[in-house]
Specification:
19% of the residues lie in helices and 25% in strands. The protein has three helices and eight strands.
Length: 150
């Protein structure tokens, strides 16, 4: 991927970085690396990669900044380092889902640990149902590559 073997401007390539986070590979640190160093720099105030076909690029950008990404054909959202210290969602069922990451910064791109509703999460994904139940996703971020699920 460092040699431009992925075209982030092409929708079929969207899920490629999250393949590292799946249950077979279990390297969410690599997902965080590629998202923060290769994908997000392509988005500027004046440009984005590819065409924003019906909001596809905008969605990719937002999910990439938030720290989780929906994996097509599943109910899973794979985790990677968030860019935001806090984000809150008012869900359609009246509940709230809140992301906290006090150490989030341009340097702290890796997840050191993550908790879902104050319970350690030893997997690199959350499910749609877990989001819709509301609650909090707490990231502890670091600048050193860490495989938080090992």
């Amino acid at each position: 991927m460092d040699n431009l073997l992925i075209d982030f401007g092409n929708e079929p390539s969207f899920m490629t970085p999250w393949l590292f986070a799946n249950e077979n590979v279990q390297r969410p640190d690599l997902t965080s690396y590629y998202i923060r160093t290769k994908l997000l720099p392509l988005f500027t105030l004046y440009d984005l990669p590819g065409d924003d076909d019906q909001g596809a690029m905008a969605s990719l950008y937002i999910f990439s900044r938030l720290g989780f990404f929906p994996f097509a054909g599943t109910d899973k959202y794979y985790l990677h380092g968030t860019s935001y210290k806090k984000a809150a969602f008012n869900l359609s069922n009246g509940k709230k889902f809140i992301i906290n990451a006090p150490q989030a910064s341009p340097d702290n791109i890796y997840i050191k640990s993550v908790k879902l509703n104050n319970k350690n999460l030893n997997r690199a994904y959350i499910t749609h149902n877990e989001i819709m139940q509301g609650g909090t996703l707490d990231f502890e971020m670091t600048k050193e590559p860490v495989n938080f699920i090992k």
